[in-house]
Predict the 3D structure of the following.
Amino acid sequence: MFSDRRDAGAQLAERLGDLLRDDPVLLAIPRGGVVVAYEVAKRRGVPVDVIVIRKIGHPGNEEYAIGAVSATSTFIHPVHSRGVPQEYIDRQIAARQREAQDRYRELRGDKPPLDLRGKTAVLVDDGVATGSTMIMAIMVVRGMGARRVAVAVPVAPPDAVRQLEEVADEVVCLLQPEGFMAIGQFYRDFQQVPTQEARRLLEEL
């Protein structure tokens, strides 16, 4: 149990020693992940950016992701997107990427995204429930030129961790409870993080 996201980030920082020795960049998934990453960065002196992920749903079922985008990168799953018209994919990429770019600017202003080429990109969030968004984030970040892509979270169910381990180079997860129902059950304080607070923390680093 964590008292709040700051406590979770402080504990996570203690477990990331080896991972943060190899030219790392923390990529916080807004908004809760920003608080966790802030605490890691403050203690370990590593650079932080945010990664805004928007999924692209199948035209026949929006919940079934065929790909995802960030503000600067795109990943389309070669199997999940089979049979989907290219026109639909192109239209969705353009729309979702605009959303990601707008959200990125809300949090980072005019700062350009950090260059991930040759870096160890460490995706940070306040927890993982199913792993589907994080898996898409891993694939998008690989397309941004990161040499290694890792995941660091305070809590996730064991089956989600196993799925992440199949696609990430490394996964650090402090708690893997069998009785997982929701991320918030492992925090005493799990209030939403306002956009202004996330932006303020990022500006402090």
Observations:
- The longest helix spans residues 86-108.
- The chain has two domains: 5-45+116-204, 54-108.
- The beta strands are 24-28, 48-50, 54-58, 61-69, 74-76, 120-124, 148-155, 170-175.
